[in-house]
Design a protein that fits this description.
- This protein is α/β, with parallel strands linked by helices and about 230 residues long.
- Helices cover about 40% and strands about 15% of the residues.
- The strands form four sheets. Strands 3-2-1-4 form a four-stranded parallel beta sheet, with helices on one face. The chain has a two-stranded antiparallel sheet with strand order 5-10.
- Helix 3 packs parallel to helix 4, helix 4 crosses helix 8 and helix 9 packs across helix 10.
C-alpha cells in the first residue's frame, strides 16, 4: 500500500521551508484516507502491518493499526521498505541541504542524528492522541538503504524484501505500508511485463497465494488494473 496524501502535495511550497523536506507528514486529506483504509480493510483479517520508517508511512500505518485494533507484535517497522533514496527526489528544491549531507548514511541525517528507536518514541508522543494507536512498532529490520540510490537499485531492494515477506510470513495476512515505487515493484514481481502508470494514495496491490490439495499454488495479483487504486498496462 502507498501512504496517504502528503502535506507537500497540499502545500507545494512546504519543502522550501521545512526542516526535514525529505520527510513530509500526511495532509488532513491523507489522515482521512488512512482512517478510511483502516476501516475498509478491517474485515480482511490482517495479522501484521509492516511500515516504512518515513513519517507519512508511520502515520498511515498508525491509523490503520488503530482502526484494526492490532496488538503488540503485529506492527513492524522495516527500513527496507523506505522511500527511494535518490537525492533529487529527497532534496528537491533544497540543494544546499544535499551539499551538507553529501554521501553520509541516511540514518545520520534522517532525524538529526537520532536513531530509529528514539525517533519512533518521539513520533508516538504526538501520534497517539491523534490516531489513538496504543502500541509501538517493533523495530523488525534496521538495515538502512544505501544513500545515494538509483531507481533500479531501489526497485531491486523492494522486490528482494517482498520475497522475504513471502517466505517469513507464509500463510499470514500482511499489509505493507510503503511508497509508490514499492507498490510498482510488487505488481512487477508477479506481472513482470506490466507497466504501472498510477498508484493512488492508499492504493495497494493484493498478492495472493492459496493452497490446493495441501500444496501452495503460485502467487497471483488478485485485482484488475484500477480496482484497488493501482493502474497498469498489461
Amino acid at each position: 500500500m502507498r501512504h496517504g496524501h502528503r502535506q507537500d502535495e497540499e502545500q507545494r511550497s512546504w519543502h522550501e521551508f521545512a526542516e526535514h523536506p525529505w520527510n513530509p507528514p500526511l495532509s488532513a486529506l491523507g489522515r482521512k484516507q488512512a482512517r478510511a483504509a483502516g476501516e475498509k480493510m478491517k474485515a480482511l483479517g490482517i495479522e501484521y502491518i509492516i511500515t516504512s520508517p518515513f513519517l507519512r508511512c508511520l502515520q498511515t500505518s498508525s491509523e490503520i493499526v488503530s482502526a484494526m485494533g492490532l496488538t503488540h507484535g503485529q506492527w513492524l517497522l522495516d527500513w527496507s521498505m523506505a522511500e527511494m533514496c535518490e537525492p533529487r527526489l529527497l532534496f528537491a528544491g533544497r540543494p544546499e541541504l544535499l551539499h551538507s549531507i553529501a554521501d553520509r548514511p541516511i540514518i545520520e541525517w534522517m532525524w538529526d542524528g537520532m536513531d530509529t528507536k528514539a525517533a519512533v518514541e518521539s513520533f508516538l508522543k504526538t501520534e497517539k492522541p491523534i490516531s489513538g494507536v496504543t502500541i509501538s512498532p517493533v523495530l523488525w529490520n534496521l538495515t538502512t538503504p544505501v544513500f545515494p540510490e538509483t531507481m533500479p537499485t531501489a526497485l531491486l531492494r523492494y522486490q528482494g524484501q517482498i520475497l522475504t515477506f513471502m517466505r517469513d510470513f507464509e500463510g499470514r495476512k500482511v499489509l505493507v505500508v510503503s511508497h509508490g515505487e514499492a507498490v510498482r515493484a510488487a505488481v512487477n514481481h508477479i506481472q513482470e511485463d506490466s507497466l504501472v502508470y498510477e498508484v493512488d494514495h492508499t492504493g495497494y496491490a493484493p498478492l495472493l497465494r492459496q493452497k490446493s490439495a495441501g500444496e501452495w499454488q503460485r502467487w497471483k495479483l488478485d485485482a484488475a488494473s484500477g480496482q484497488t487504486g493501482v493502474s497498469w498496462y498489461d
